[in-house]
Amino acid sequence: MRGKEFNKTLFVVLLGMISIYLFAVLDIQLKESAQKIEMEKYNIYRILEALILIFFGVLVEYKKVLLIFKNGFSINKYYLITAISLAILLILPYDTIMRLGIGHPGSIKGIISLSLTSINIRSVLSVLTGILIIRSLASSKSNKQIFRGEVD
Length: 152
What we know:
With 152 residues, the chain is mostly helical. It has one domain. It has eight helices and no strands. It has helices spanning 2-35, 39-60, 62-71, 77-90, 94-100, 108-117, 119-137, 140-148. Helix 1 runs antiparallel to helix 2 (39-60). The longest helix is centred in the N-terminal third of the chain and has 34 residues, at 2-35. The chain is flat.
């Protein structure tokens, strides 16, 4: 039983390391395309980075993913709406964000535009989106099973 759990954990860690490696490679490409002012490539790399980090966020909740496949899912509409909204905002092209304009630093518009143009904040929001997607599909029963150690 312990060996099976170890293998699952090792597999998830391996997937996480691959995700981080792919993110690092894409980040180099993203910075090169930004220096060369190649907006089309820049936007593609931004979207790919966001998707990889969303996947990483899903990996963070891997026990809930296993329980969703084992027991089915129940939708938490508030988490799901938040996750979908964040995902849409994260894949907006850079020029679209700039067209929305940079608001006053203290305003809601300023906070949103600053959040979407900062690579670091986008990275954190991408991981959060992955976590929220899984939490929006996991039942509250899944949380209890995880805490009791009933995940196979």
